[in-house]
Amino acid sequence: PHARVTLHPDFRVGTVDRRLFGSFVEHLGRAVYTGIYEPGHPTADEHGFRRDVADLTHELGVTILRYPGGNFVSNYRWEDGVGPARDRKPFLDLAWRTVEPNLVGTDEFLQWAEREGVEPMMAVNLGTRGVEAAAALVEYCNGEAGTRWADLRIANGRTEPYGVRLWCLGNEMDGPWQIGHKDAHEYGKLAAEAGKAMKLVDPAISLVVCGSSAMDMPTFGEWEQTVLSYTYDLVDHISMHAYYEEHDGDRASFLGSGTGMDRFIRRVVASADAVAARRRSDKQITVSFDEWNVWYLDSRFPGESNLPIQRDAPRIIEDVYSGLDAVVVGDLLVTLLNHADRVPVACLAQLVNVIAPIMTEPGGEAWRQPTFHPFATTARLARGEALDLRVEAPSYATARHGDVPLVTAAATVDDDGALAVFLTNRGDEVVEVEVAHAGAVVTLEQGRQMLADREPAVAGPEHAAKVQRECWSTVDVARAVTPGSGGSTTIRLAPESW
Ligand code: AHR
Predict the structure, then answer these.
(1) Which residue in 224, 246, 291, 385 is the catalytic one?
(2) Catalytic residue status for 222
(3) Does the keyword section mention Hydrolase (predicted)?
(4) Fewer CB atoms inside 10 Å of the end CB: C or N, the chain?
(5) Is 193 in the active site?
């Protein structure tokens, strides 16, 4: 098969916001304890945070981190997690039916993020709590000395406000599993009032209102419009969450996941714009895609009430990824780049151990899962402006997403004119892709590719290293391409590759 991608550096989608390369740390399983934080680990710093995990976080290129949840936040009393750790009590987290040791809280996380140069994105509890606790948390984080909650922060040892800019108004409030789940009207009203109070504390913050927790929720669409009808003038972003997996060996649909994500984004944007139209508003709501990843949810969902309560940072949702999963992650990033104008924020869920690109062993090593590589490469190379491409490619039929293109593409150009092109071949044959670069001087540098594998993924660093060796490789650009100006470059894409 053949495909043709046409690009021109003047035809642009929009600026690639660096926050597109975010991730997520929830109090869930081993994301915090033995993930980012493990006092006594050979690489732990004086605050108890693992240096090896922080270094991999930098290598991954993560720009923002969402915290503390997720489902966890909907039953979290943030006040219980500040002050001297020795005075804090462990508590039962109902979201994951786990005993939370309560050693890491708002201050520990925010100070770690600050030391590591990663922007925090905080979520407030709109499940079991409400307006007062949300406004108090903003004051605790961002307030100047002289009022109750800001003074508590100072008493806890932190004088300077943290200046947290981005705030989520709860998490997945449409989901019946959410502690304190609400219907769209209840949530819309609460989010509007909480958001109003939070902005009265700090008008500089930006707010994310909860969209649907998945496109297949029965309330999808209606939820977005109702919630935005209460919050349109107040919020900046609406959240999207999506997880993809290979169902019953349907590889073709799984490889087409990026098209599912593309349609989901278009529908949410259309819903938001419909609210704007009704209000005759020129304001444009953008998307915070604050949970996305491959997650084998069908087979491995924990937290059911018939499971015993777990303690000591249990191993839950520790999905092990293959080269195939990594190809899909790369392709999902292609989709996100193509919506750079409407999706400024996205978080790969999650960062470490829980459906994560980084894994650790308590007391032992930290390693990269296969999905680490396309993320790190895209975060490093996709800079500046996303280009508005024309992609002509055959399509193929899938059970889940209907007809999807065989080849997907995204491209960016930075201030220095450096062009990066991202391509996926979703089919099982080699595809010759002609990239026609009108108006662009193309000097080709090294290319990298991720190949899908067919072996089941095996837990542990050895298999991850094997996938890295066998599937993650340098593309031989010298033979495959012809540099030139205003010409075209032909690239042979291996079967099922990113
Ligand atoms: O990321 C894991 C969980 O998935 C989050 O806690 C929740 O928001 C979503 O359902």
Answers:
(1) 291
(2) no
(3) yes
(4) N
(5) no
